[in-house]
What we know:
Elements: H1 5-12, H2 30-41, H3 47-52, H4 55-67, H5 71-83, H6 86-98
Amino acid sequence: MSESDYFKAMFSNHWLETNYNCLELKETVIKPFINVLKIVYGFDFNNEDLEVLEIPELIESLIIAIKYQFTRVEKILSQKIISKFPSILDMNNESFQQI
């Protein structure tokens, strides 16, 4: 969890969680959290795996990455979400050019 400032602070300082092997993450949806961990650790989760994720699951995973401060994963998921909307970006670009 060294990629997360959230967990790095939790486990390296004198917090209660530092002394436990188990941690309860309340209000955290498990599937998106697992997606984030797969990206962090590279376990059978590459660009092709990102391609099959639907937009709602990508967004939920991005929310988890932001919540737990996985900065690199935030960037990866943000880029993937943006890439799923090329026509919207093109449309916005055209409207800016008209102004």
